[in-house]
Amino acid sequence: MFADTKKLLLKAQQGKYAIAHFNINNLEIVQGVVQAAMKLKAPIILATSEGALKYAGMNYLYALAKIASEQANVPLALHLDHGKDLDLIKQAIQKGYSSVMIDASHQKFEKNITLTKHVVALAHKKGISVEAELGTIGGAEDLVSSRNIIYTDPEKAKEFVDRTGCDFLAVAIGTSHGAYKFKSHANLQLGILGRIQSKVKVPLVLHGASGVPSALVSVAQKYGADLSGVKGVPDSQIKKAIMGGITKINTDTDLRIAFDAAVRKALHTKPAEFDPRHMLAPARDLIQKVAEQRIRLFGSIGKG
Ligand SMILES: [Zn+2]
Question: How far apart are CA 170 and CA 150, in angstroms?
């Protein structure tokens, strides 16, 4: 029913493009990103973070993703993003997710290996693939936050993948979670990425890589949002990262800003409106637009 995340990523690795991972929290986000995928014939990954599962519940989000995958004419995978709670990871495996992420990157190297190995054993028994993380991605989002960025060590990355058997690896090369990513500007360490790629053969994943497009921010700000100081990763650096071996790129912040901008605009321009559908339909439409831009940038258009 759901697409196999690992297969999607291995194909992307060969074809030198990246699969879009979109974080989902509600109906409108699911419909927006899935409509984008269908329009552009692109495979995508729907991802639920621990925060999203706390907000909506796994059963609801799973059901939304399931209906979407049944109706879509493109491959859709379902992924657990930043799994830290072992019970939740087990639930996702039991439920039939395509893949899970074990995020033990905040732990010491050996402990990260032990925890990741454990999840790999559980998941592989059910044919589910596993994303792990080594290094520290900066910024804050949902239940994940870190003050500093600690780049992934290429040698350690090789040892980590060899010893854990993880299927894909999230790397820290200078990206940052959330909307307030950088004090000055993005500066992805493509040299480090190159060294990781030469040693590690599994697909590589980029977190904290939203573009925070200024056109979107301007709309939100025009209708009252306080977003001063937000900063994203420019498209040019994303393209270089894909050429450097990144095959899965997570997008959450850009969808949130789209949602925020559209709802603010709808409320502001039609103050007499009180039908939630008339507030949320524009958000769904703008999310679709943003998702389409991401898919085009990642080069996965027509790959479904
Ligand atoms: Zn992340």
Answer: 13
For 168-177, write each residue's pLDDT tens digit: 999 999 999 9
Nearest to 133 by CA among 119, 116, 154, 158: 116
Quick: pLDDT tens for 96-141: 999 999 999 999 999 999 999 999 999 999 999 999 999 988 887 6
The predicted structure's pLDDT at residue 139? 81
Q: What's the CA-to-centroid distance between 81 and ligand 1, angstroms?
A: 7
81 is known as an active-site residue? yes
Answering whether pTM is above 0.90, one says: yes
52 CA from centroid of ligand 1 (Å): 13
CA separation for the pair 233, 245 (Å, rounded): 17
Ligand 1 centroid–CA 269 distance in Å is 34
Q: How many angstroms does the Cα of residue 41 sit away from the middle of ligand 1?
A: 25
Q: Which of 4, 81, 87, 254 is catalytic?
A: 81
SS3 category, 80: strand
